[in-house]
Amino acid sequence: MKPAHRKIEAPRVTVDIVIFTIEEAKLKTLLIKRKFDPFKNIWALPGGFVRSKEDIYAAALRELSEESGISGVYLEQLYTFGSPKRDPRGRVITIAYFALASRQKLRIRSASDAKDAGLFSVDDLPRLAFDHKEILEKALERLGNKIQYTNVLWSLLPEYFTLGDIQRVYEIIWGKKADKRNFRKKLLSLGLLKPIGKLRKGLRRRPARLYQFKTKKYVELKRFF
Amino acid sequence: MKPAHRKIEAPRVTVDIVIFTIEEAKLKTLLIKRKFDPFKNIWALPGGFVRSKEDIYAAALRELSEESGISGVYLEQLYTFGSPKRDPRGRVITIAYFALASRQKLRIRSASDAKDAGLFSVDDLPRLAFDHKEILEKALERLGNKIQYTNVLWSLLPEYFTLGDIQRVYEIIWGKKADKRNFRKKLLSLGLLKPIGKLRKGLRRRPARLYQFKTKKYVELKRFF
Questions:
Q1: Which CATH number does A157-213 carry?
Q2: Which residue in B17, B39, B121, B215 is deepest, having the highest Cβ count within 10 Å?
Q3: In CATH, what class is B158-213?
Q4: Is some CB atom of chain B closer than 8 A to the CB atom of A134?
């Protein structure tokens, strides 16, 4: 680091949060409609400035709670975006996070700086403010990867689910169908799930075993080697 | 984001870079000895403030070049560290990067803010300034993972190498021996390498095929599914 007396125009620092949920068989994200310029009336990711004495992860948790009423969900630092032109007001560097929340947990409300808030399918987004489209694309890529070798989906699914349920979630996130036999074999071989010893019975379908994640503590599996 | 007129004490933003190389069969990282307070005379990761109109990736490239004379190597954003207490001077958020460089490419020199610079084995580090130990640990973890499903090792190895050479690099990074047969089978199955059709002959060893990475463009392999 250069000596502190060297004059540097300090940038401002924000956190922005991509909150993923599943609703009506679609992967959706929470957006807020901006009440103020720049990008007044344009949809944006929820977020805000990091406070002077606040840890950045704490800032992300605070924004998550303020904007969607949720806590206790999976929240991960995604990437920091720092192009000098990304905010017309001046230099703003943003630390992006992503969160996974079941639809039941999300309470959608407009914070004081928002005109409106809503869930949007990631396949059918409105125009987004700033570089938020780029942030969302990065989050989608990370999510698509992470569900292959971690247990983060516990945060998107209800407590108990069938293998059919979880396969649909994978298919929705990846945007493509998976072969049932292969998928189940691979998924169970990861060792992240356990059967709870109960069946879900439906009128028009065969009873299906219910599963849950063995733990909600973060698990990252070894890969090729 | 909150309206711009809300008063926020702006943090300062730095980039810090973990530069990995291999020397004498050890994974090493470049450290600089700080010339100024805080942490005067303590070793630290190379880095510095992001300039007002500079992209953060450009800042990392600039620091990399200033501190080690290298360019054209693999450089990736690692993680952003933003504990409010990490710098005794006040609020400084740092965006950490990591780079991989073959020893031949590295020119070690002291920048104007450093008293000294040198390579240190990651297994035998001096006391580090700030939270740089934590940053280094995160970088080590990322590196250990990334070499399992990407081609980033092109940047740490010479242009041509034997499977024995690259196995040693994996073993050095992971800090453990690998079974030769299994390792080779798995490594070649990734499809990242190609034989160049030449052998390396040695006086005291059997001739060994030389390989190179198929591309230096970033490749990330699919994982379990």
A1: 1.10.10.10
A2: B17
A3: mainly alpha
A4: no
